[in-house]
Amino acid sequence: MPPCERCLALADDPRRREPPACLALRGTAPVVTQSAAGVPYSMLSFCCRDCGTGWRLYDRANELFVSWVPERPLER
Length: 76
Fold this sequence. Notes:
Elements: H1 5-12, E1 23-34, E2 40-48, E3 54-60, E4 67-70
Antiparallel strand pairs: 1-2, 2-3, 3-4
């Protein structure tokens, strides 16, 4: 199934903090780890209720912005 308009909009603005209403949280606890450079971050997984697109929300410690990353490349 192709991504919905809200998922395409999120892909165009991946640094916004507020998730679209169509995203449902998978699980409740964030995965907390650190990058190869030693920077700690947390990751939450979401799934779009409308189109099924999977998303990961990465939030690095002491960073103003977050990163929304689709689990698979989006086909436009």
